[in-house]
Amino acid sequence: MSPPAQPSAGSRQIAKLALPALVVLAAEPLYVLVDTAVVGHLGPVPLAAVAVGGTVMSVAVWFGTLMAYGTTGRAARRFGAGDRPAAVAEGVQASWLALGLGLALCLLGVALAGPVAHALAGNPATADAAAGWLRIAVLGVPGLMLAAAGNGWMRGVQDTRRPLAIVLGANVLSAGLCPLLVYPFGWGLTGSAVANVTAQSIGGALFLLSLVRETRRLRPVPAVIVRQVVLGRDLLIRGAAFQACFLSATAVASRFGVAAVGAHQIALQLWFFAALVLDAVAIAAQSLVGAALGAGDADQARDVARRVTLAGAVAAVAFAALAAAGAPVVPGWFSDDPAVLDQAAVVWPWFVVLLPFAGVVYALDGVLIGAGDVAYLRVTTILAALFGFLPMIWLAYALDLGLGGVWAGLALFTLVRLVATVSRWRSPRWLVVGATR
């Protein structure tokens, strides 16, 4: 029996999936921005400590993102082929994988917080503060990973409303808790870390409860979990390339002083915020492209790709215009230290100019992930890291080019990926139909 026809994925359907996903994507980085603003007013050393600790935690966040993206693509193809129970079953096995990986990362984080913080930080005071923050913050990683798996299978079956309610509720609670614990309770950085753990743990528990309500077939199937690991290896390797770049960038920025790494933290968290907001259309692309190819409709998949690329470009230009207009005031929301603000002024032009190009890249990343063409993304991301980002930022360190040199590396990384994804989009090689790839 042929799979049921999928509804036409026009602009309205893309918006229906993208707008709830936008709120979900924005919730976590928005909480991080609130956290950065709260901690920033404790002084430059606590701000630098959160920069270092937050960069290490971003490793777990990226693992979660990869978990969500891989699960979305697999679930969407099965959903498009008319088999919703099989799509949900992908979520069950992904959740077991998420729990195991989350616990492993948590244990590693507790054990290695001190050495990692001292390796990344530019001075002992920052390293000690970052290590203390990390030892608490990593306790939320299992919940973070469970939430990522839950987001993945729900997006695959084109359900973006439940993730909206869960993620928004958990992060709003934690955003209100953060300033309360940091200031009135007097916990300082510890309060920031506890609020972080609270949001991630509540979110993970609620996604797990939703899965239990969806299906009673919760037994782990090792063969399926292993297959998911094998199928996700390209996304993991690609994610590792991202992490090598951002960890190196923070390490180099730290060598330019406390003010430099504080400014880098502000700009980088705003960049992550913009990236995840712009990824809303990419998530719609993952779901709709996967479903279209699962149903055997290559023309619809191609039409979705065209529409989301245009939407990503327009959204990124709008975001860049807002960032440019906010240049005189936005950095002051996060720090009142003059040296940090001076360094932020160095980074800001790079941040604004890169956004429109990044919008196209993020949209096409979503198209190719939804199509299961992640091997191509793996190769091009590694090449962009090895021959763009990493050489430039270490050259910036060797020649003392400051934060401008670090962000020139980010520019090269983005532009290499732009050329690669546009070239792939224009070819037919990613249009492989069927319930599995």
Automatic annotation (TrEMBL):
Protein keywords: Cell membrane, Membrane, Transmembrane, Transmembrane helix, Transport
Record carries keyword S-adenosyl-L-methionine: no
Answer whether the UniProt record assigns the keyword Cell membrane to this protein: yes
An example of a Gene Ontology cellular component annotation for this protein is:
plasma membrane
Protein family per UniProt: Belongs to the multi antimicrobial extrusion (MATE) (TC 2.A.66.1) family.
Name the NCBIfam families on file: matE (TIGR00797)
- Indicate what this protein is called per its UniProt record: Putative MATE family efflux protein
